[in-house]
Amino acid sequence: MKWWFGMSMPRKIFIMLIVGAAAGFLLGPKVVVIKPVGDAFIRLLKMLIVPLVFFTLVSGVTRMEGPGSLRKIGGFIVSFYVITTLVSAACGIAIGLLFRPGRGVEGILGTVGQQVNVAKYSAIDTILNWIPTNPVEAMANMNMIQIIVFALFVGVALLCLKEKADIVIRFMNQMSDVVIKLTEFVMGFAPYGIGALVAVLTGTIGGKMMMAVAKFIIADYLGIALVIVLLYPLLLKLWSVPVARFFGHIAPAMLVAATTTSSAATLPMEMSIAEEKLGLPESIYGFALPLGNTANMNGFAVALGVISVFALDVFQIPLTAGIVFQMLFLGLILSVGAAGVKGAGIVMSAVLFESLGMPLGLVPILAAIWPVIDIPHTTANVTGDLVGTTICGAKFKQLDWKIFNA
Predict the structure, then answer these.
(1) What is the CA radius of gyration of the chain?
(2) Fewer CB within 10 Å: N-end or C-end of the chain?
(3) At what angle do helices 144-161 and 166-188 cross, to 10 degrees?
(4) How many other CB atoms sit within 10 Å of the CB of residue 401?
């Protein structure tokens, strides 16, 4: 079994997906005997959600240099990343609403439609409900939006205190490392849990869900295409950056991102391209690219938008203005919180479902197709980092056009 334990996680998941699908196809409904293995994986994911979101978000905020570092260049690049992430999430929601991949399989994984409050939407009440009156109660009830808001407040307070709260900051950073390590442990069990869940799904659901998943993949790819082909070139043109030459320079980084599906693995090449091809100074790319690598996840934001619409239809939850507003907010916050977490797409999808009050029945389906949809996600993430960094250099007249045009 040495070859198995030495294999990469994506390969293990892929093999177990095939094994699980074959078992479900051959055994049919009898395959439910292995359902407890999948249920254990779902429970492990739920165990992670609250500590993972709280500690990683607090730690992420405290790792910034300080409030002063967000002025001028920092303020611009942070604003750029926030706005493009929101627009990307909106693109995902729009494409999801256009395709409605969950139509035709409503209720196939159960329904929570009767539990949803469909009263008249109030933006003020919605925002007020995001503020926890009791953070401990919010954590106990897994009210994810309230936990996220509380974590952001704690992170900003610690960032302002800095040296005075050094012990607490170090504790938060260490706890972030602990929960990320826990996530790695849980994801080590993922191939078996996902294989069992896929086996049960294949044996009990049938072809309708497969068609819905195919529609979801197409919608996801189209959402990413909107961001890369329309949004990024438009932003570059606004700051008079030649689009064709820019994409020619960054093509190697895009290729590495697509083949490795790892933003972190692409970062050294991004920094090399920024200096040698784009003509950017280290004072800009040294700040903007590492920040974007951990906090700017436009591709994942698109996916969260499509996933949200998909799940709402599958679980027969009425689509309201309030839910759309929440999806945009979660698309921003969860795409930032996903940075640096192994299996981020699977874990953060679980967080999304908990935040919107839905069961985790779609998690194994998303896990099954994640290697396919993660290719454009990572490419869009890396491209967005380089677009923002280049625009920042052009805006503050620190881009060497001789190098850029060479």
Answers:
(1) 21
(2) N
(3) 140
(4) 12
